[in-house]
Structure formats: structure tokens, C-alpha cells
Write a structure and sequence with these properties.
By secondary structure, the protein is mostly helical. The chain has one domain. Helix 1 packs parallel to helix 5, helix 3 packs across helix 6 and helix 4 runs antiparallel to helix 5.
């Protein structure tokens, strides 16, 4: 019984931490601009990150690693567990986006975000 209480407490703390972390990043630039993009624009941004020669190579690998992790059925926490199963996926996406924005030069990120916001024809 104590084990379940500890697991439930950990779940609540992790969920609150992710929520507060996402809210904190969403108030800061350029994270705010990224958060305001539509899903299509976010995917366009990731494509621009991967194809831009000014972005460090190790950063270009992160979206592929994230997609591979999300696509594989093997997770740190299995997805069949309600709520808890998706927390590791949400945390991974937040960390990858934060790393891309943090470790890519600010001018490049700003330019790529503006390019991603342009309407596609």
C-alpha cells in the first residue's frame, strides 16, 4: 500500500513539475514564439533546424532521436499506464525543444521561427 502511495505522489509531483516547466518556458522568448506556432509550423521549424547548415550537427540529430523514441513501443514508462505512461513522452518533447532552442544560436532560432511562421503555398 505504501508503494502505491509513493508512486501516486511521484506521479503528481512529476505532472506538476512538467506543467510548471512548460508554463515557465512558454513565457520566455523564443520558447513563447515556438509554443504559439501551429503543429504544421512546428514541424516546419524542425525541418528547418535539420536542414540549416548553421545549426550544430548534434542538435540536428535530436529531432530524429525524439521521433524514434516516440515511435518505438519501448518506453521508460509503458504507455498503457494511464497518465503516467505519457509523462515521459511529454518530458522528452519538452527537453528536446528546449535543447534545440537553447543550444542553437539565438539569431538562427529567431530566423528559423520567422521562416516557419510564413504561410506555405
Amino acid at each position: 500500500m505504501l508503494w502505491l502511495l509513493l508512486a501516486a505522489t511521484l506521479l503528481v509531483v512529476a505532472a506538476i513539475g512538467l506543467y510548471l516547466g512548460a508554463r515557465y518556458l512558454a513565457k520566455r522568448e523564443p520558447y513563447h514564439t515556438f509554443a504559439a506556432l501551429s503543429l504544421r509550423q512546428k514541424l516546419a521549424f524542425m525541418k528547418l533546424v535539420v536542414t540549416d547548415p548553421r545549426v550544430p550537427r548534434w542538435i540536428k540529430v535530436l529531432p530524429f532521436l525524439m521521433a524514434a523514441y516516440l515511435a518505438t513501443p519501448i518506453d521508460l514508462i509503458p504507455d498503457f499506464l494511464p497518465v503516467l505512461g505519457y509523462l515521459d513522452d511529454v518530458a522528452l518533447v519538452l527537453l528536446v525543444v528546449a535543447a534545440i532552442v537553447r543550444f542553437t544560436p539565438r539569431a538562427v532560432v529567431t530566423e528559423l521561427l520567422e521562416e516557419a511562421r510564413k504561410p506555405r503555398g
